[in-house]
Design goal:
InterPro entries: Glyco_hydro/deAcase_b/a-brl (IPR011330), NODB_dom (IPR002509), Polysacc_deacetylase_ArnD (IPR050248)
Number of strands: 3
Protein name: Polysaccharide deacetylase
Distance between the termini: 50 Å
Strand order of the largest sheet: 1-2-3
GO molecular function, one term: hydrolase activity, acting on carbon-nitrogen (but not peptide) bonds
Keywords: Hydrolase, Metal-binding
Helix content: 25-40%
Structural class: alpha/beta
Number of helices: 4
């Protein structure tokens, strides 16, 4: 499967001018992030793969899942950087399409 370069559209960059969009570097670095965990099957599998390659990742966890699977969450804390949220926050751009009654 060939790699397809992904480029952020200029319009998006103009809407968010204070964001960092490019960093010039000669280092070969990737940053791995995983959202909406922890879940036993997937999170444990990811942690095993990360261990095999001595790699780190950032996990963005949902509080309800942390409460439901505390042992899996502890595995994240032992191996990686764990960032926790209680709720998923959905950001919307523009006016809401519905109004309260």
């Amino acid at each position: 499967m060939p790699l397809i370069p992904v480029k952020t559209p200029k319009v998006i960059k103009s809407i968010f001018p204070n964001y960092v969009w490019n960093i010039d570097t000669t280092e070969k670095v990737i940053y791995l992030t995983f959202d909406d965990g922890p879940t036993p099957q997937i999170t444990n599998w990811i942690l095993n793969i990360l261990n095999q390659y001595n790699a780190k990742a950032t996990f963005f966890c949902i509080g309800a899942n942390v409460e439901k699977y505390p042992d899996v969450f502890q595995g994240i804390l032992n191996e990686t950087i764990g960032l926790v949220t209680t709720h998923n926050i959905i950001l919307r751009v523009g006016k809401p399409k519905t109004k309260p009654i």
